[in-house]
Amino acid sequence: MVTRKRVLLDVDGVLRDWGRSARKIAFEFANVPKEYVQSDPTNYWWMEDLPPQFVSPCINALFEPGFSTLVLHRMAEPYLEAQKLYNFLKYNFNVTICSSQPNPFLETLTEQWLYKNIDNFDSNIVFTNEKHEVEGDIIVDDSPGMIGKILEHTKMNIYCVARPWNSEVVSENRVYRNTSEEIIKDMMEKYVPEKGM
Ligand SMILES: [Mg+2]
User: Fold this and answer.
1) Helix (H, G, I), strand (E, B) or coil at 139
2) CB under 8 Å to 21, separation ≥6 — which residues?
3) What pLDDT was estimated at residue 188?
4) Ligand 1 centroid distance, CA of 44 (Å)
5) pLDDT higher than 70, residue 75
6) What is the spatial distance between Cα 92 and Cα 178, in angstroms, rounded to a whole number?
7) Of 3, 48, 54, 113, which is most buried with the most CB atoms under 10 A?
8) Residue among 43, 10, 19, 21 at smallest CA distance from 142
9) How far is the CA of 183 from the centre of ligand 1 (A)?
């Protein structure tokens, strides 16, 4: 029997559209003016550009245990193609969810979010910022920084789900940046043996 390849699967920016809800929360709960939360969609970490007086209210509203973070995790929706991507990976690979969250409270909310929003969810979950230390053959992620680190420290093949904030990631060597649909197609060709073989 062929051993299944191990896939590390990111949550935010891959399965969960965290950013859109985060902007709404920043506006509603941290009083960040509209022009900042409506700004450039290519900038995922737009908080870094906020005027100083909004930075800590915003960080509190988005990351600290409390009502606004609960609302954020309730509101955040899966991307349209998330279920299809998860199903494909689940049935063909050994999937580990690999997500970086800033504190245990958000880890719990993220775990709950997965069970609530992804049908038939039953994968192992690892919360870490050191994804390059997790055993895997393939990683699906969206963060340019994370992808750079994985490339440098591991031999994993990297699938980058194309988002406006990672357009600087180019497909070469072990990196393939494309839509979820195209990523599934590429993985089918590379890793999924034909039925009956
Ligand atoms: Mg991500």
Assistant:
1) strand
2) 72, 75, 76, 77
3) 96
4) 10
5) yes
6) 19
7) 113
8) 10
9) 16
Q: Please say whether the beta carbons of 132 and 100 come within 8 A.
A: no
DSSP at 194: P
Report d(CA 57, CA 36) in Å as an integer. 14
Report the separation in Å between the CA atom of 1 and the middle of ligand 1, taken as the mean of its atom positions: 33
Burial of 32 (0-12, 13-18, 19+ CB in 10 A): buried
Q: Which residue has the tokens 């609960």?
A: 70
- pTM of whole model > 0.85? yes
Ligand 1 centroid to residue 194 C-alpha, Å: 31
Give the strand order in the sheet containing 175-178: 124-127, 94-99, 6-9, 138-141, 157-161, 175-178
62 alpha carbon – ligand 1 mean position (Å): 15
Per-residue pLDDT for 42 more than 70? Answer: yes
Ligand 1 centroid to Cα of residue 174, in Å, is 18
Strands (E), 46-170: 77-78, 94-99, 124-127, 138-141, 157-161
Tokens coding 64 = 């600290």
Question: Amino acid identity, residue 153?
Answer: H
